[in-house]
Amino acid sequence: MSDKPTTSFDSPAPTGPSQEALKAAHELFVSLAMQEASKVVLDNAKDVLPFFKGLLPESDRASGILSFAFIECQISEIFSQHLDPKAPGGLESIVGQNGILDNVGSRLRMLRALNWLGDKTFNDLRLLAHIRNRFAHSPISLTYDDDTVRGYASSLEKHETKFLYKYPDVVLSPKQLHLVRSIMTLFFTYEDLVLRPSSIRSGFGATGAFSAPADCLPIQLQYALGWCIDTVFAIYSDAQKAHGG
After folding, report:
1. What ranges do the domains of the chain cover?
2. Which one has a higher pLDDT value, 181 or 101?
């Protein structure tokens, strides 16, 4: 005998919401996330192009230190905007010189723990910090050919492959390659630190806002990402000229 309970009528099969309703819900979440994201100020992103172009004539050591200094400054500025300025002790007690997150390593770990940074961006930022520290703490003037620097660099995301379609024959110098990878890490840092916290606060999960079409992103984020790409183009153009292209 079957143990399955019997009923005198057939229960209607459960049905989910219509596709139209699901689409409307998704659009609502995207709208809420973009409203949150639009509150983030990215004024200093306009300096990406002149700053990184200015590193091209610098020494390897200077470019390795200063490129990450710019990124670190951007992280701190955006991080602070997501924090409550009325927190006990103020923001200085958290991200200030003697705050609980007074160094870039602790800030990156906290950002990753909050899910405000994705794994790839987090890993690349840590590697760039290691490269900066290697240059900064060495008593001699190192280059990108240093074994330790090369070891860290080899583990960075190979962002230059994204530009082979436009520059298939261009060979970047070690410094140019480092700058391209740094700029593209900054590109994804902007994206993560603007969209992930905003998406979470909107109830859309950490990555829900990434489903928004590019033209729906807040204009300041569109500009910041565009300036990063323009800067990469400028570095490739510099490499072309160096090889007579």
Report:
1. 37-242
2. 181
